[in-house]
Amino acid sequence: MRYAIHLITAANLVAIKRKSNEVDTEDISTVYSLFIDIERSKQFLKEYEKEFMFTEIDEDYNRAEKREPNRMDIDN
User: Fold this and answer.
1) Domain 2-66: top CATH class
2) Are 43 and 14 in contact (CB under 8 A)?
3) SS3 assignment, position 44
4) pTM (2 decimals)?
């Protein structure tokens, strides 16, 4: 519900900017492309996960797990 209210409010601002008293479907479409709901956000992350920094961290962690421990890693 909160997402819909934010979407309609922003669409109203777009309509006001184009000097209209009514929100049009084009206003909704414009604003929809700016907001990302949870499902579209998850889909976006899955599609572009290789381009985000956290994949580099995972690769570094995996490399660190495969190496032999040294004296600095051993707790006394």
Assistant:
1) mainly alpha
2) no
3) helix
4) 0.49
